Amino acid sequence: MVRRHSRWLIVASLVAASVAVTGVAVATGPTGSVVSEVMGAGSMPSGVGFAATPDANTVVARFTFGPNSSSGWHTHPGKTLVTVKSGTFTVYHAKDCEARAYGPGDAFLELPSTVHIGRNETGDIVELGVVFFGVPVGGSPRIDQPQPDGCEIT
Predict the structure, then answer these.
(1) Architecture of the structural domain at 34-144
(2) What is the pTM assigned to this prediction?
């Protein structure tokens, strides 16, 4: 019994030490002033030209990013279409950590598996229109993700 307890104590100590040394990945949330307003959400019947997913909504929202603010690292449950109404919005993807800047009138698509962060790196306001596809009914269009290794953008 004492030997079994000693082994457990050693294993627990090693796990605790490895967590302390390596750290724990923690989800990142928005920073600065980020305001979202859901304009509407609803399900599409099949046969309207889009592949309708059972128990999933399409959510339309407006986002306003204050100066020097960010979305935090995240993904989405389905495809996401973003349009820039005003300002310059910069997006970084975990796979390469390279900046992609979008201005008024630009649109881009985020795929569900893409870990990314969106930032307003200016002193002006950024306004976005966003359509989230495949959002579980009652669920969130955003899934927080930890900061990726090798990409120090927050």
Answers:
(1) Sandwich (2.60)
(2) 0.75
